[in-house]
Amino acid sequence: MAYDNPRFWDSGHLDSEVHRVFEICNGCRLCFNLCPSFDVLFKRIDALDPHRAEAEGKHLEGGMVEEHEAKKLLEQVEVHTESPVSLLEAGDKERVVELCYECKLCFPKCPYVPPHEFAVDFPRLMLRAKMARAKEDGIAFRERFLGATDAVGMVMTKIAPLANGAAHNRFNRMLMEHAVGIHRDRQLPAYADESFLTWWSRRAPVESPAQPNARVAVFATCYGNYNDPEIPKAAVEVLEHAGCAVNCPEQVCCGMPKLDGGDLEGARGLARKNVEMLLPAVREGRKIVSPGPSCTLVLRTEYPELVGTSEAREVSEAVMDLSDFLLQQARHKKLPKGFKTPIGKVAYHVACHNRVQNLGYRGRDLLKWAGADVQLVDRCCGMDGTWGMKTEFFQESLKVADAAASRVESAEADVVSSDCPLAGLQLKQKTGRPVYHPVRILRAAYLGEPLRSPRGGGGVDLPPAADG
Ligand code: SF4
Ligand code: SF4
Q: What pLDDT band is residue 77 in, cutting at 50, 70 and 90?
C-alpha cells in the first residue's frame, strides 16, 4: 500500500491485511525455509492447528484399518473450515514482523505479487507494521541512533582512534549493549579518520577527458563515506581509468536505516534532500553509481514513492549499481584489461539486495571478466542493515549466516568479495577473512598492490603474476 494512502495508518485495515496475507502464505508455504520470519509463522500456525494430528493421519496410527472400522471412523470425521491463522495472537504476529530483516528475497519468489489480484508484498507489509508500531510507541532511542548515520559518522570520523578503540573495549561494549541495544559481540565497522567526501573535496581536480566514455556521479553510501572510504575512492579511480568524467555531489544517507527503524518521515526527509542534491548531476546527463546494494535498492525503488515527484523519478531512473555499471563498460570494451596482478580465486557472495533488483551476479561477472576464478556464495548473510547488530537478533543473524560462511570457507579462495559491505562484516565475523568490494579488487589488480582492510594491518596479497 502506498505511503500516502489514507488507510496506510489505519490499524484495523493493517490487522486485516496481515491476516489476509498470512492466510495466503499458509496455503502457499513456498517461503518456508527463507528466513526466521516464515519459520516462526508456519511453526506457530501448525502448533495452533487443533486438527493437526488428523491432518497428519496420526489418528490412524494404530495400524491397518478393517473395512467395518473404516466406516465407523469415517462417520466420526468432522470437517472444520476455520483457519488456525485466526488463532494467532498479537504477540505471534509481532514476532513475525520483528524477525523480518527486509532482505526482500520472498518478493521475487512470490507468485502473488502485484499485479496478481492477491497483491501480496510481504516485506512491505512487515515494514508497514513496523512503521505503525513506531508511530504508536514513538521511535526507540536505538532506532534513532542507528538511523542517524550522518550525524554519528561525522562525529566518529573526527575521533576515529578513540571511537575504534572503544568499539574493542569489553567494558564499553557492555555499556553500549545496555544503553543502545547493540550486541557486545558484534564486530562493528571501524571509522576512517577522514570521510570520503572530505577526501574528494580536497583532492586535486582531475581533468575530465574531452570525449568521456560516460558521465557519472558517485553516491558513496554512509559506509563508504565514514567507514571504508577505500571503496568509493577505488570507484572514482577505476571509473576515471575507464575514461569516465567523475563527480561526487553533496549527498546524505539514502534513508534505509530510518526505514528499518520505522521512521517514515525521517526517511522521506533524507530522500527529498538527496533528490535535490543529485538532480543537477542527472540533468547534466550523469548516471548515479553506487557501491551499496541496499542504497541502490532504496534510491531506485523507494524514492519515487517516498518523495512522490517527477524529479524523484528522474533521479531514481539514473541510479545504477557500481558493479553493474562497470560490467556494462567492460562489455562495451570501455574498461581496460591491463592488470598488473592476476586476481586468482575469489569466493564471491551475492548480496540479497542485488538479487531482488535482478542484479544478482554482476559483481561475479565483473570479476570473471577480469580473469578471476570465481566461486559463487549464493546464500543470505543474515546481517541485513542493522538488524544483525541488535542484541535480540544477533544470535539469529549468525545462524542465518552459517550456510554462506561454510561456502566461503570451503571455497579456499585467495580473496573473499561481496558488493555489500555489511555482508562483508558478517562474513568476516564468521570466517575471520576480510571481504572486499569487487571495485577494490579491480583497483588492486590494476595497480599491482595488495588489498588492505579499512583498519589497516592484515589484508590480502593478490597472487603473484605468472611471470614473476
Ligand atoms: S523480506 Fe526477507 S526476512 Fe522479510 S519475510 Fe521476506 S524473506 Fe523473510
Ligand atoms: S510470500 Fe508469497 S511465495 Fe512466500 S509463502 Fe507467502 S504467498 Fe507464498
A: low
- Report which protein residue has its CA nearest ligand 1's atom 2: 103
Residue 462 inside a domain? The answer is no
Question: pLDDT per residue over 6-58, tens digit each?
Answer: 899 999 999 999 999 999 999 999 999 899 999 999 999 999 877 666 656 55
Ligand 2 centroid to 22 CA: how many Å?
Answer: 9
Domain that holds residue 376: 336-447
Assigned domain for 40 exists:
yes
The vertex-53 CA angle with 52 and 59, nearest 5°, equals: 150
53 part of a folded domain: yes
Separation of CA 58 and ligand 1 centre (Å): 32
The rounded Å distance from CA 90 to ligand 2 centre is 21
The number of angstroms, rounded, from the C-alpha of 221 to the middle of its chain's C-alpha atoms is 13
Q: What ligand 1 atom has the least distance to the C-alpha of 101?
A: 3
Number of domains in the chain: 2
Burial zone of 240 (CB within 10 Å; 0-12 exposed, 13-18 middle, 19+ buried) = middle
Å from CA of 19 to ligand 2 middle: 13
Helix (H, G, I), strand (E, B) or coil at 403: helix
Pocket of ligand 2 (CB under 6 A): 24-25, 28-31, 106, 109-110, 112, 120, 122
Instruction: Among 103, 137, 171, identify where a domain stops.
Output: 137
Q: Which of 20, 24, 45, 127 to mutate to test the pocket of ligand 2 (most atoms within 8 A of CB)?
A: 24
Sheet of 319-321: strand order equals: 244-247, 214-218, 287-290, 319-321
The last residue of one of the domains, among 90, 122, 137, is: 137
Q: Count how many Cα atoms sit within 13 Å of the Cα of residue 5 in the half-sphere of its side chain.
A: 10
- Of all protein residues, the one whose alpha carbon is nearest to atom 7 of ligand 2 is 25
* Angstrom distance (rounded) from CA 123 to CA 288: 26
Q: State pTM to two decimals.
A: 0.87
Mean pLDDT of 390-402: 93
Q: Which cell is 404 given?
A: 554462506
Tell me, yes or no, whether 438 lies in a domain: yes
